[in-house]
């Protein structure tokens, strides 16, 4: 596995000064003329990243214009469909050729005992891995008994495309069969946003120049455990070492619990129970088969059906005359549960199918389009007249909504529902990278994500207790609420997850005005996390400093350190927010206060301690260098020049060096201090930000895709336009151009959420510290304009940034919003567009 980013690098970019510079940028440059600081950067050329003969530009679609034009695994990820509950990789309906078959149900996982070679108290005990759910994508086509298999078929007029406005994956081509017959084959697939439990698909065959025997075999296959070609070959292979991949489950996982078939409806239903986790899942399919012949006759159609524990098949077979159009529509339902028996889930699937059967595949597709129309109205970001970038931006936004919309009682896995990378686990990725987008575009989905964490509190209290802490400690990686990270140094020690959850929750509350959430779920989260920090950290003798030791910050290349800057400032925020909210409840909501006080035995003295700790929080600062050390030991370590061709490290480091080799060096995997500068931007001066950014930039490998998007935002804020664009492009194309070489394992969802943040917070200049909203754009040279939407207190504002002006207007909502600082001016946003001339502040 290599980071092929460097392979595609071009030389240093053209002299910046030759490019026309915006007034805003000019101002920034005048102040900081010598700050290009991009020596170690290999600037990526966005235009050269994708082969446009294979994936042509289309602002609303991702297209593959040649059969198997993209590597199989990559295409399966890029064309995966999901609604946040059901996920289906972009495997072809005929099954082969595939790199990894994948069908996932969010939260459906198997557990297994983690075997620590050397055990210790409190290590994670139980691994959790997302299961390959029964695969209902299969619709195999045979013409005159010859199977269609794209890998060896002669094919013309091929196109596979995913339309972001329709939410439908389409593939069409003309197949010239070995006997020379021409057959038009068109297939469609969608996972419904409106119907959480439903996927719909169809295959249509047109006999262009001859009569033919047509057979379509529609199936549900247990690929997790099934035999032979049903089995998922990629999972069975002993993959090379890559800790980012999922654990392979060796034993049988899905134990058959129920099978049934209803031939009148061409319906089959299967249900299973996971051997160890006890979770249950059921999948059912219904079919509608139609034939249209040129002369209106109805050929005889033979159907047969088999339902075995690991495979259900419904087969349609006919001899059709030239010119016939044969269409098979398939509706699929999935239900899963932690408690309910498989048989009951099978009934639920059938009830779902009965209901959506009345809507039909075409009706579902219309509903999908309507749902997406509303989504794009709230969420679209437009880069004016940049169709290639636009396509990539929309693909990224599509990924975030696919991963989260119907996750509801589940989290958002690091790979969404598009692959098994990271075992289907939920990380801090959700709070810091995904929920800001949801908060400002689909607040209900952000609320669900917050509620999902709140739901985990019980397990988090127990985990804190197990580790001899007070309050709640959330798991670093998990599906079911239990810590699943076997490597505590880069897992449990990332205590910052507690503060990340609170940070995201407060952002949601400020943006939405959802006081009810704050009073109930929010108060629980705040009290539980504040207590945790008080027991993890400690005051020095004079109580002038509060320190936090033996933690790991976001940067996983430096672990178990003292006073990680990110952790300390986030904990400080967490403690301060907890004290503020609790005091506010005490002041304004006596009944709620009494309940809270009673539930947690809260005293004024305890809340006072939180304030004292926040106030005294130790923030490492090195006077000599004028920077914030990432932690107490960081500056003492040896430097490792990333760019030295002789002595520089191989990338990504995590695949080439023992952790101890990495830990010895001043080298970082991902933005850590720099992330703190962004998230807590109001507590650092511009001078500090500049010094920190410049110090850490050459040390940052970007081996995690969570890095580039954050670096882009800070580079934009500081006026490093070239770097801001370079990092943006690295985030934007991380999957589309497979920049980290592992897109086949699934979409980098955090980076996709980060792309939105690079546009809105970075180039768009939006800030929201403590519920104070401001917009100070940094439009890149060469961009004509940028339009984005943000929903604040239920009102949607459209922001349009042009070279010299920012326009704000209330696009939807019952009241004005503001004041918002727009390019230095106080603005109340109403239905009349307001334009502020940038640079006049
Ligand atoms: C990153 C983590 C991230 C995880 C899942 C790791 O490589 O270092 O910050 O949470 O991937 O995306």
From TrEMBL:
Name this protein carries in UniProt: Kojibiose phosphorylase
Region (Disordered): 1-20
Matching InterPro entries: 6-hairpin_glycosidase_sf (IPR008928), 6hp_glycosidase-like_sf (IPR012341), Gal_mutarotase_sf_dom (IPR011013), GH65_N (IPR037018), Glyco_hydro_65_C (IPR005194), Glyco_hydro_65_M (IPR005195), Glyco_hydro_65_N (IPR005196), Malt_Pase/Glycosyl_Hdrlase (IPR017045)
Binding site for substrate: 428-429, 669-670
BP term (GO), one: carbohydrate metabolic process
Alphabetically ordered keywords of this record: Glycosidase, Hydrolase
Glycoside hydrolase family 65 central catalytic domain mapped to chain residues: 394-757
Domain Glycoside hydrolase family 65 N-terminal: 73-338
Catalytic residues, chain numbering: 556 (proton donor)
Any Pfam family the entry gives: Glyco_hydro_65N
Domain Glycoside hydrolase family 65 C-terminal: 766-829
Family affiliation: Belongs to the glycosyl hydrolase 65 family.
Lineage: Bacteria, Bacillati, Actinomycetota, Actinomycetes, Mycobacteriales
UniProt-recorded Gene Ontology molecular function terms: carbohydrate binding; glycosyltransferase activity; hydrolase activity, hydrolyzing O-glycosyl compounds
């Amino acid at each position: 596995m290599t980071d092929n980013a460097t392979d595609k690098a071009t030389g240093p970019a053209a002299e910046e000064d030759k490019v026309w510079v915006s007034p805003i940028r000019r101002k920034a440059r005048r102040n900081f003329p010598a700050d290009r600081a991009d020596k170690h950067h290999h600037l990526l050329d966005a235009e050269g990243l994708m082969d446009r003969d294979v994936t042509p530009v289309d602002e609303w679609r991702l297209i593959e214009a040649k059969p198997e034009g993209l590597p199989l695994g990559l295409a399966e990820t890029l064309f995966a469909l999901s609604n946040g509950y059901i996920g289906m990789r972009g495997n072809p309906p005929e099954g082969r050729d595939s790199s990894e078959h994948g069908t996932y149900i969010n939260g459906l996982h198997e557990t297994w005992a983690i075997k620590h070679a050397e055990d210790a108290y409190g290590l994670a005990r139980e691994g959790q891995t997302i299961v390959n759910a029964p695969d209902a994508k299969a619709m195999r086509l045979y013409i005159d008994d010859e199977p269609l298999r794209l890998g060896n078929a002669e094919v013309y007029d091929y196109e596979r495309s995913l339309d972001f406005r329709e939410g439908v994956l389409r593939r069409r081509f003309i197949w010239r069969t070995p006997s020379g017959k021409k057959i038009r084959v068109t297939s469609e697939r969608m996972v419904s946003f409106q119907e959480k439990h439903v996927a719909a698909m169809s295959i249509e065959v047109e006999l262009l120049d001859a009569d033919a025997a047509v057979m379509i075999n529609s199936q549900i296959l247990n690929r997790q455990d099934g035999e032979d070609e049903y089995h998922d070959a990629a999972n069975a292979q002993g993959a090379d070492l890559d800790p980012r991949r999922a654990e392979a489950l060796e034993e049988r996982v899905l134990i058959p619990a129920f099978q049934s078939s209803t031939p009148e409806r061409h319906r089959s239903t299967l249900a299973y129970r996971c051997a160890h986790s006890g979770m249950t899942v059921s999948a059912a399919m219904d079919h509608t088969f139609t034939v249209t012949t040129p002369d209106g006759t109805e050929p005889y159609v033979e159907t047969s059906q088999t339902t075995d524990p690991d495979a259900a098949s419904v087969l349609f077979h006919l001899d059709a005359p030239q010119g016939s159009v044969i269409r098979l529509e398939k509706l699929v339902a999935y239900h899963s549960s932690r408690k309910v028996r498989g048989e009951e889930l099978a009934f639920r699937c059938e009830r779902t199918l009965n209901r959506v059967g009345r809507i039909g595949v075409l009706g579902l597709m219309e509903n999908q389009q309507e749902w997406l129309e509303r989504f794009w109205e709230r969420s679209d970001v437009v880069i004016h007249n940049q169709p290639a970038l636009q396509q990539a931006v929309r693909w990224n936004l599509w990924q975030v909504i696919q991963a989260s919309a119907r996750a509801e009682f589940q989290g958002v896995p690091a790979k969404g529902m598009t692959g098994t990378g990271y075992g289907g686990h939920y990380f801090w990725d959700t709070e810091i990278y995904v929920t800001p987008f949801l908060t400002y575009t689909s607040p209900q989905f952000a609320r669900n994500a917050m509620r999902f964490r709140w739901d985990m509190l019980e397990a988090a209290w127990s985990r804190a207790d197990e580790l001899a802490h007070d309050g709640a400690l959330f798991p670093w990686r998990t599906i079911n609420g239990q810590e699943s990270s076997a490597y505590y140094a880069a897992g449990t020690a990332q205590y910052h997850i507690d503060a990340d959850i609170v940070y995201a929750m407060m952002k949601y509350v400020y943006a939405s005005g959802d006081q009810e959430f704050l009073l109930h779920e929010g108060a629980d989260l705040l009290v539980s996390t504040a207590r945790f920090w008080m027991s993890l950290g400690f005051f020095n003798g004079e109580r002038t400093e509060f320190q936090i030791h033996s933690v790991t910050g976001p940067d996983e290349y430096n672990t178990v350190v003292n006073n990680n800057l990110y952790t300390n400032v986030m904990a400080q925020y967490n403690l301060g927010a907890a004290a503020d909210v609790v005091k506010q409840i005490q002041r304004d909501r006596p009944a709620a206060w009494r309940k809270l006080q009673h539930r947690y035995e809260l005293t004024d003295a305890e809340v006072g301690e939180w304030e004292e700790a926040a106030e005294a929080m130790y923030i490492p600062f090195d006077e000599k260098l004028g920077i914030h050390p990432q932690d107490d030991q960081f500056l003492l370590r040896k430097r490792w020049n990333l760019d030295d061709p002789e002595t520089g490290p191989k990338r990504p480091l995590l695949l080439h060096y023992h952790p101890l080799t990495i830990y010895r060096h001043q080298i970082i995997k991902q933005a850590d201090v720099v992330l703190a500068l962004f998230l807590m931007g109001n507590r650092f001066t511009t001078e500090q930000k500049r010094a920190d950014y410049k110090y850490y930039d050459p040390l940052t490998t970007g081996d995690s895709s969570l890095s580039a998007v954050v670096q882009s935002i800070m580079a934009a804020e500081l006026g490093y336009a070239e770097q801001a664009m370079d990092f943006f492009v690295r985030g934007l194309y991380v999957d589309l151009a497979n920049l980290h070489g592992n897109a086949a394992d699934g979409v980098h969802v955090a980076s996709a959420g980060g792309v939105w943040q690079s546009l809105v917070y970075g180039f768009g200049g939006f800030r929201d510290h403590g519920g104070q909203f401001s917009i100070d754009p940094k439009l890149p040279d060469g961009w004509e304009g940028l339009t984005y939407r943000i929903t604040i207190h239920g009102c949607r504002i459209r922001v349009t940034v042009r070279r010299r002006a920012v326009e704000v207007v209330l696009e939807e909502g019952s009241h004005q919003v503001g004041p918002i600082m727009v390019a230095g001016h106080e603005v109340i946003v109403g239905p009349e567009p307001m334009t502020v001339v940038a640079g006049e502040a």
